[in-house]
Amino acid sequence: MELGIPQSFSRVLSSMCTEPHPAAREAAERFIATNPGDPGTYDTVADLESTVVDRLGEVAGLDEPAGYVASGGTEANVQALRLARNRADTPDPNVVVPASGHFSFTKAANVLGVELRVAPLDGYTVSLEAVEELLDADTVAVVGVAGSTEYGRVDPIPALADLTADAPGDPLLHVDAAWGGFVLPFTDYAWGFADAAVDTLTIDPHKMGQAVVPAGGLLAREESLLAELAVDTPYLESTSQITLTGTRSGAGVASAVAALDALWPDGYREQYETSQANAEWLAAELRLRGDEVVSPTLPLVAADIGTEAIDAVRDAGWRLSRTERGEARFVMQPHVTRETLCAFLTDLDRLR
Ligand SMILES: *Cc1c(COP(=O)(O)O)cnc(C)c1O
């Protein structure tokens, strides 16, 4: 069968993934037949996985990180809530999540049998008063979003940490930096382990990190937290497993090492600066055209260009998604260059 050619990234404007770094692609190919799910047998890739965790710890401000390379942000979020639930002692657990939380938390609550308490926003970030009202003795985790999927906004993580510390049920604080984790180190935001009492954190190398899919990351402040996830593995060379998946690709792991080697920190910093400048440029261009734009505080622009315009540019081949409110969503991934944006604006101006 003719497989065809995958889509090119030249007109992809809303994806959170991107063309992998060449070194990441090469590493993925080399390690494609390895299985870090069985570290006793596949020890080389298991060592690489520890390296990724150490490096992600550097990115997120944690000296001696525990963690692993997950299949993505979804698995990392599910696992963070799972460990919080397992650690707590309540038959009726709940988790407080901002309304801006990724839909993976809905999946997590569903598979874990945990009640999701959605805290409304105050503007684009979570309302601290709302969080405080929702906390009770059965709250096992509080979630903060560091780089929201729709608007790229960052919740007040240190204030959430304070609320979490004072909460009755001794909950954990989980930060979802799946997308934002590779740009936030170059901003003034307080988001990571060094900024607040964060317990667990999601950070995906396969988004702004330029690794291949599947490479997500779950980090924990202490190894003992991950022990809540351990199950016995009788017929493997290793004796227990903390991951949700069993057999899993070593391609993501090896590619994450290669990408981090090539880009942390200077390459990622340059990419952040370019992406942020592009976001601000696009926001200004759209405002000149009279469109309402949500200010891009991270490299993600949401703009109300109108439903008809979105349909027209999609028909012209642009891959563009919208927010729940209907704005067009432009994610400044590395493949979205100034030339891409100029070509997009030329089409937009022609078509509306
Ligand atoms: C993308 C994303 C996720 C989910 O990650 P996957 O890798 O798609 O499973 C979770 N949270 C945030 C904030 C994201 O941007």
Automatic annotation (TrEMBL):
Where are the annotated coiled coils located?
none
Species whose genome carries this gene: Halosegnis rubeus
Stated family: Belongs to the group II decarboxylase family. Sphingosine-1-phosphate lyase subfamily. Belongs to the group II decarboxylase family. MfnA subfamily.
EC number, UniProt record? 4.1.1.11
Q: In which pathway does it act?
A: Cofactor biosynthesis; coenzyme A biosynthesis
Q: Which GO terms describe its molecular function?
A: aspartate 1-decarboxylase activity; pyridoxal phosphate binding
* Upper classification of the organism: Archaea, Methanobacteriati, Methanobacteriota, Stenosarchaea group, Halobacteria
- GO biological process, any: carboxylic acid metabolic process
Modified residue N6-(pyridoxal phosphate)lysine is at which positions? 207
Chain's role: Catalyzes the decarboxylation of L-aspartate to produce beta-alanine.
Reaction(s) this enzyme catalyzes, per UniProt:
L-aspartate + H(+) = beta-alanine + CO2
Cofactor(s) annotated in UniProt = pyridoxal 5'-phosphate
InterPro entries to which the protein is assigned, alphabetical? GrpII_AminoAcid_Decarb, MfnA, PyrdxlP-dep_de-COase, PyrdxlP-dep_Trfase, PyrdxlP-dep_Trfase_major, PyrdxlP-dep_Trfase_small
Among Gene3D superfamilies, the record links this protein to: Aspartate Aminotransferase, domain 1, Type I PLP-dependent aspartate aminotransferase-like (Major domain)
Q: Which UniProt keywords apply?
A: Decarboxylase, Lyase, Pyridoxal phosphate
Tree of life domain: Archaea
UniProt name for this protein? Probable L-aspartate decarboxylase
